[in-house]
Write a structure and sequence with these properties.
Elements (H helix, E strand, L loop, with lengths): L7 E4 L4 H6 L11 E5 L3 E6 L14 E5 L5 H8 L5 E4 L5 H10 L4 E4 L1 H9 L3 H22 L10 H14 L4 E9 L20 E10 L2 E2 L2 E6 L5 H20 L6 H14 L11 E3 L6 E5 L12 E4 L2 E4 L3 E4 L2 E6 L2 E4 L8 E2 L1
Parallel strand pairs: 1-5, 3-4, 5-6, 10-18
Antiparallel strand pairs: 1-2, 2-3, 7-8, 8-9, 8-10, 11-12, 13-16, 14-15, 16-17
Helix pairs in contact: 2-3, 7-8
């Protein structure tokens, strides 16, 4: 906050709150807010939610409000002396709009400028949590690659549900997503699995992840149902080289955009540049997508503990698509993968 000349931090729902005080607020119409100033930290919660808060009196003061109170007015009192306030990215706008009436003339900035850099650099315990979540996702990927998950004749939605159940069985607390895209549907990076039946002679893209002990997994693997055609196999070989280049670029002292450049350059040189339509990666931790982002223009230096995906893809509209994704942590000894499932285009 001192570095950003911020007088107060105000966060509500979202993951900044549990990161700082260990409490997950329910997304209610009742305001939960953490107000941090240079001299104090106050967690304001609805009285009926107070029993869910684990007290840490040496870290923050707990104040509960009743149904007839005005919690926004209570926050305004705590912020009365603040000129520049960093507001949580996921705080509901209804509360901010009401706060503007109480505190006009203040400067409001995003909390990511304050908390984002802290959350982006993982400590040893966080890295261990990411590794455990990644290993659990690897076990599901291995089941896919061994042919233990039924594909031919099943709908994408049925396979998505199967993968989700397997993630839970492997230790995840919740499933955040389970993309299953077959054939031409794989050309849509965020395809929603539906009633389309999976057939032999096509690629199946599976991108899935969840939350395990507070930290996220995210992995993408593809299988081919039959013998891959020469053009598909060539594309996969290029994709694997691109992903490897992106991983190796994720070194301490490099930049976030250098990861994107390394992977993208391989695909462009191989003639696939126009078919790689998204950034190379995103940060990961308590959220599936968080700082830092591996994208052109992001000159943020990579530091020890930065955790991010490396997931180049090739998407040919109307025909097929493919993506290869691992989670990587930058360490003093080099990039460390959190995923180790087979990276071949496995033929089933």
């Amino acid at each position: 906050m001192r570095e950003q000349s911020v007088d107060a931090l105000l966060v509500s729902v979202g993951h900044d709150l549990p990161y700082l005080v260990g409490y997950h607020a329910m997304p209610l119409e009742r305001l939960t807010a953490l107000v941090v100033t240079a001299s104090s930290a106050t967690l304001l919660v609805p009285r009926l939610e107070a029993p869910r808060v684990e007290r840490h009196d040496d870290v923050f003061d707990l104040v509960s409000w009743d149904e007839t109170d005005d919690p926004v007015a209570m926050v305004a009192v705590l912020l009365e002396k603040a000129s520049k306030v960093a507001v949580g990215d996921q705080m509901w706008s209804r509360f901010l709009v009401d706060l503007l009436r109480h505190l006009p003339g203040r400067q409001y900035v995003r909390s990511v400028d304050v908390v984002g850099l802290l959350r982006a650099s993982k400590d040893d315990a966080e890295i261990a949590a990411l590794m455990a979540a990644g290993a659990a996702a690897d076990r599901v990927a291995a089941q896919l690659q061994r042919g233990e998950i039924s594909l031919v004749g099943c709908t994408e939605a049925e396979v998505s549900a199967d993968i989700s159940a397997r993630l839970i069985a492997e230790g995840h607390d919740v499933v955040n997503f389970a993309i299953v895209a077959a054939g031409e549907n794989a050309a849509s990076p965020h395809h929603h699995p539906g009633r389309r039946e999976i057939r032999r002679g096509e690629i199946v893209l599976c991108d899935f992840g969840g939350t395990m002990n507070g930290y996220c997994s995210d992995i993408t693997r593809c299988v081919y149902l039959g013998e891959p055609p020469a053009d598909v196999q060539r594309a996969w070989n290029d994709l694997r080289r691109a992903q490897e280049a992106g991983v190796q670029a994720g070194v301490v002292g490099g930049t976030c955009e250098s990861v994107d450049t390394a992977a993208r350059s391989v695909l462009e040189a191989a003639g696939w540049g126009e078919y790689f339509i998204h950034r190379t990666g995103h940060g990961i931790g308590m959220e599936a997508h968080e700082e830092p982002y591996m994208v052109r223009g992001n000159t943020l230096p990579i530091v020890h503990g930065h955790a991010f995906s490396v997931e180049p893809g090739i998407y040919v509209p109307g025909k097929w698509g493919m993506r290869l994704e691992d989670i990587v942590v930058a360490t003093a000894s080099g990039p460390q993968r959190m995923n180790n499932a087979v990276r071949e285009l496995v033929a089933l």
